[in-house]
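Morning!

This is the sequence you dropped in the shared folder:
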Amino acid sequence: MSKILVPSSGPDGWKAFLAKPDLHWAKGYSARTLAHAWEASPDLPPEVAAVMSAAFGAGALLFAVPEHKTRLPGGTRDSQSDILLLVRHDAGLAVYTVEGKVNEEFGPTVGDWLRDASPGKRERLRYICGLLGIDNCPMDAHYQLLHRTASALIEAERFDARMAGMIVHSFSPENRWRDAFDRFAELLGWSDGNGEETLIRVPSGKSLMLGWASGSQHFREM
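The structure's back. C-alpha cells below.
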C-alpha cells in the first residue's frame, strides 16, 4: 500500500477506501454519515474536540486518514479504523482511532470471534491484551473495541506520540451500544461510567483515553 496521501475531494471520496463500498456506503449508515460530519468541519468536529480536550487539553488536527489500516500480528487481516487522526495538544502529540456508529453494533464478542480459532487468532488476542494490560479478557467484550484501541497505541508508537485515544463517534439518537462501550472501558479500569471520556493506564506508559462523542443527526440525512 502506498504511503503517499492526497487531499480529500469531499465526502464521496471516502467511499473508495471502504472494504465493501457498494454495501457500506448508504444514507443513514455510519461510513457516509461520518464522512459528511468530518468534511463539514474545518478542524475537529466540536463534539470530538470536547472529549479530546477533557482528556489532554485543547488540540489541533494535523491530519486525518479515512479507513486507515494497522498491521497486527497473527493472521493477514489488518485492523481498518474509520479514521486515524494525528492531533497536536499542548502536552504533545496524540494519535487517535475513530469508530463511527449509527445503529451498527460492535461486531462479535471475543467468545464468538474465538470460536474454532486458529493459532494466529489466539496470538493476536494475546498481543492486543498485552498492549492494553488485560490479564484475562472477558468473553463478552467486543473484539472490535479491543483491536481499534490497540491500533491507536500501535500508531502512537510509530509517530512517537506520548498520547493515544480511541473515540466512538456515534450518530445514534438513542446512543445505541453505549452500554457495550462502557463495559469495555470498565474492563480497562474505568470506574466511573457517567462521563464521555476516561484516561487509562497501559503497560507502555503512554496515556490512553477512551471517548464517546455524539454527533449531529443532521449528517444522517446527507
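Headline: Residues 33-221 form one domain.

More detail when I'm at my desk.
O.
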